[in-house]
Amino acid sequence: MRKKTKTVVIGAGKIAYTISAALFNSGAPPSAIISRNPRSAEDLAYAFSVPIHSGSLSSIKKNTNIIILSTPDTEIQRTAKLLSALDLPFEKILFIHLSGALSLNLLAPLERKGALTGSLHIMHTFPNKTPQKIEGLPAAIEYSSPRALKEMKSLCGLLKIEPFFLEKGKKTLYHIAGVFAANFLNGNLSASREIAADAGVNDRLFSALFIRITEKTLANIKRSGIEHALSGPVERNDVLTVKEHIKQLRNLYGRKNKNILCNYLHQSLLLTEAAEKKNPGINYRALKHLLICEADKIKN
Question: Superfamily assignment of 7-169 in CATH?
Answer without folding.
Answer: NAD(P)-binding Rossmann-like Domain (3.40.50.720)
